[in-house]
Amino acid sequence: MNRISFASLNRKAILVGVLFTVTLIFIIRLFQMQVINQQMYDEKSAGNSIKAIEQIPFRGVFYDRNLNLLVDNIPAYTLRITPADYDTSLNKILDAVLDFDEGTVSNILKRNRIYSKYVPIRIKRGIDFRVVSWLEENSNYLPGVDYIVEMQRGYPFGVMGSHLFGYSKEISPKQYQQEKDYYRPGDYVGHNGIEKAYEMELRGKKGFKYVLVDSKRKEIGPYKDGNVDKESIKGKDLVLSIDGYAQKTAEEEMKGKRGAVVAIEPESGEILALVSSPEYDLNQFSYVTTKEFLEQIYNDPANPLFNRATMSLKPPGSTFKILAAIAALDMGVINVNTVIHCGGGFTFGRFFKCHGSHGSVNVIHAIEKSCNTFFYNLIYKIGLNNLKRYALEFGFSKKTGIDIGEETAGLITDEDYYEKIYGKNWPRSILASLGIGQGEISVTPLQLAYFTAITANNGMSYKPHVVKGYLDNNTGKINKYEFPKIKTSVKKEVFDIVKEGMFLVVNGNGTATHIRSNKFKIAGKTGTAQNPHGKDHALFIGFAPYENPKIAIAVVVENVGFGGTHAAPIAKKVIEAYLTKGRSINKEDKIFTEVIQTGEEIAD
Amino acid sequence: MRIDYHIKDKIDFYIVIPVLLLLLLGLIAIYSSTFNNPLAQNNFEKQLYFALSSIFIFLIIHFIPTNTFKIISIPSYAIGIILLLLVLVIGKKVSGAKSWLGLGVFGFQPSEFAKIATILMLSNFLSRNNNNIDSIKDILIALTIGFIPVALIFLEPDMGSSIIFFFFILVLLFWKGLSILWLVVVISPAVVALSAIFGTTTFIISLILLLGILFLLNRDLFFNGSVFALNLASGFFADYVYNILSPHQQARINSFLDPSSDPLGSGYNSIQAMVAVGSGGIFGKGFMNGNQTQLQYIPEQWTDFIFCAISEEFGFIGSITVIILFLILLGRILRNASNTRDEFLSLTQIGIFAVLFIHFLINVGMVIGLVPIIGVPLPFVSYGGSSLIVNVIMIAIVSNIYRTRKNYT
Lengths: 604, 409
Fold this sequence. Notes:
heterodimer, A: alpha+beta, Penicillin-binding protein 2a (Domain 2), 2 domains, seven-stranded mixed β-sheet, five-stranded antiparallel β-sheet, 24 helices, 37% helix, B: mainly alpha, three-stranded antiparallel β-sheet, 3 strands
């Protein structure tokens, strides 16, 4: 009876309708996906299967001025974990193998959880060969664990250079935000010293290798046979103005002391040595830095991370008398014949002591004997504002603009400064101690060395710098960087007079006769900065050879006492190292032999 | 008796040729998608053997007497149920579902066999008396015959097969002439159950819609109230079942709601499949040149996602070819079923139509992002022995009926 509805044409029509509708929808959808939106899917598909692998170029190395290799790249093994393939039950084993505290591996993994689990995470850099062979043997039981060879800094010359070279470390999130276009999380960037200042030159240019990957991001092979790959470009190899021997000597001499040594080539402003002591081991920063090392270095009362050479501020003490003499002579308030009587001190409101009774002294002998009385008098003739003017001309009370790292400006006061504090009638007696470089006056070791260099070269030099240029590996030539020239308005005769005084400090009856050398004529000036918190700071500035200065130096040793005793011998050693070893390699240098000849004349 | 040797009379080319072409396309795509995969090295050869042996199976079934199907319907149904029970006890677990029986070298899915058995059994029952199918007793018996295997398959749990059974049972009832009201009664619990899984709001909306439809078709308050109560219960039951569902099935349902919410999880297949299809363009990337396929972005692509490989490597042209072949095949079966006056044979063919059609709908639909990811192979194209042989048996039945059509039209 129900034949009417069984397999009726109506019902057939409905099924045919459904069949055609579904087919039509499929065709429209496929047309939309494959014809209209094909490009969108194509891009997604390409992005899926092509992986760009960054090729980190070799970082530029550092040569010294004689092309001795100071800092290079050495291969080191880095253990990595790819979280997607890794079994966390291996954490304990790896902790033990890597000499980590328990839980370290798990902590590193947790810290990196924000990145894709297919990206390998560096667990430890600089693992030793024993661990590498263990990894090789057990690789079947260590899914997701591998090692790669990475370049790490090495210091083949034996120079520490901790504050000079600086180190690189993983980019901070803040810097990454600012320079997203080049860096990736986990990249190493120069953190301080030359590594930071010359980061752009040193880092080179990253390359990219394109590979095909499967759905598990496993590499299958090169993309387009590597034709679209971009080679990485090696960073520039810097040629430093540093002399490896002078630097090494200065570092050895400063071992166990606090302070700084800065040596500069006067005619060029090139820094020959820059040491801040105590130093720290840069190798410790090349590896994944251990917690103990960081704790130790941060808690060290000597504060080894602090760059004393460019940042520590001390009164210049008697070394400052040279500037006062230059100012007075150049202004004409005294001449070489002006004599002041020293009876053991000077009275201005109160009595200012001299360390001896020098009788009648002119400016040359006042420098030789470091006579306080002479300079107490002199400052009142010069006037504080004039002194400040000269100080600025010679690089004090402002940053020198050295090409590396941070530095401090220091302070030389002027009349406005005291007027602001004490009013119009500020006690003029303050001036007396400023005249001998004590009191409210502070300079950095770099500023002292720079001042000495300008003086030695008769008022002319270049902005101080530690990098000369970079080595063009194709031509073997050095492309020099340019630095601004510095020229003071001071007359040449003034320098002759002052330098004669400095010569006598060492070679006459001065305060540093014990560093007299039979090889070179050293000229210099000792200084002792009063320190209300403990023992005085020892200072020495000097240059050599006297006639044709090739090295100017400033040495500051903290809390040891008299400058002649503690700072001058260090200066002598560094000068010796540079003039005998460093400069002897320099072929263009013929002055060296002359120096020996003249040196023999003055030998006693 | 004059024997007509005209081959067109014996074999329906509108059925056989699309099937052969689909098989061929499938073999090409399986070759391409397994070529680089160490896990599936021999799949192409295996599928080739299955394809060749299925031709023999086809020929055997093509030539057996047509009344055999009715005779074996009851025993085969009984065997099917026994196998389904057996698989629950000693079955092999494959991707979270206990649906395989080890049978010597080859695994075997009883649910595939149960498809044919249930179609035959249900066709047999529905054609037995020409009574009004709208009698509650007949409907309940028909539903019982249909839903015993569904319940057993659901317990495995194999959602894909459950949906396929539900669909062809419905189409058989529809073909038999079940009234629209009763169709609503049968379908609505499933629709309401699904909407309950989506959320409370959709659940309530579907209930309101149901009430509207019921009162449009029928004024009997008691009847409508009972149906409503049934639906309400099914909604709550679905929610309960969803919560005890195995995690991979829950994830599949969830990722359909928003595939991009978990791009590396369950939504991954859906996204990668669409990328593969879309990036194929008009002419495709060329045989063995589809990077999505060759780099194995879609796990086990040679089974349920074989359509991606064709779409990616042969483009719009390739995918349209597959669609057209299915349209011809399915349209032809529908036409043959409609022309067969014998109720049993007509119902059997429409059941086969329904099974193939729902496979086609779900498989292609899920690959192009219109249907949730449900593990259902594309007939004749996907890799898989039991599925291929069962599909060929079904086609052979249709072909057999075509051969003897003069006796039944």
